Amino acid sequence: xxxxxxxxxxxxxxxxxxxxxxxxxxxxxxxxxxxxxxxSKNKIRNxxxxxxxxxxxxxxxxxxxxxNIRYSTDLRDLADADFIVENIIExxxxxxxxxxxxxxxxxxxxxxxxxxxCITITRIGSLMKHPENVLxxxxxxxxxxxxxxxxxxxVYTSDESIETALKTLESVNMNGIVVxxxxxxxxxxxxxxxxxxxxFALQDRVADAESIDRIHKECFGHTMGPLETADLIGLDxxxxxxxxxxxxxNDSKYRPAPLLKQMxxxxxLGRKSGEGFFKY
Length: 280
Ligand SMILES: NC(=O)c1ccc[n+]([C@@H]2O[C@H](COP(=O)([O-])OP(=O)(O)OC[C@H]3O[C@@H](n4cnc5c(N)ncnc54)[C@H](O)[C@@H]3O)[C@@H](O)[C@H]2O)c1
What we know:
Elements: E1 3-7, H1 11-22, E2 26-30, H2 34-54, E3 69-72, E4 83-86, H3 92-105, E5 111-114, H4 121-125, E6 134-138, E7 148-153, H5 159-170, E8 175-180, H6 187-203, H7 209-219, H8 226-233, H9 235-249, H10 258-265
Parallel strand pairs: 1-2, 1-4, 2-3, 4-5, 5-6, 7-8
Antiparallel strand pairs: 6-7
């Protein structure tokens, strides 16, 4: 593995690109506009600065890691990539378009990783000429601070692809827990329901946002409450994910809280927009 392709330069794409660049991989980061890429370049520099500051006692971090990242709006730049991680918005139609295009461009041996919250890997793999090379990695946020990830085996994913992914993760100081394909996998099947129910509790005025989170932190010993977690993930991503679970399982327990929809309509997306359940 030499060249890593990263598609989508939002919260997750920035983190994934940085993590691979830090371990000296050559990274090509793709997004739809130059403006988004310029913004992501600044944000990746900030991630790098913070990483060096917070982890300075653990040993030196390559100060020029961010130079290993090239920025592009052209998917064809991934023609020679060995390992591709897709992180665009959690929308089946948008992802479908990207994979159909990607399937015509990439090498037949390239491994393709879907970084998704809830969409099944089998569905995405079926769009590709080589579905045996497609697998899921559910990276956690912030990527460089969460070394353990879920690795998802789709119906067509080969053992060799899973092994390659685990080795590649190991090479950037990360480790994977392999699970079978199902909407939301393990983590988000449980987490999204918790977050959505916490939003219902807020909407029903059972408690204010701070108290809901304090109950999780002080009574359960969690490091973050569900509403703070939602703000970190992005409320639009939470809404997309809950909608995917709702449609995938045809189960009303995943119906999105009206307050969640209203906040997304209002542009209150959490940390990335400066306001969600809390102000930043
Ligand atoms: N935010 C999280 O905590 C988190 C955690 C794990 C997984 N995920 C998953 O990772 C993926 C990305 O989430 P995010 O939070 O980074 O979203 P985001 O909204 O921060 O970023 C998405 C990026 O994709 C870009 N994009 C949209 N369409 C594109 C296209 N056709 N080609 C190239 N780029 C395109 C957008 O311009 C944007 O920069 C989603 O599938 C999400 O479910 C998110």
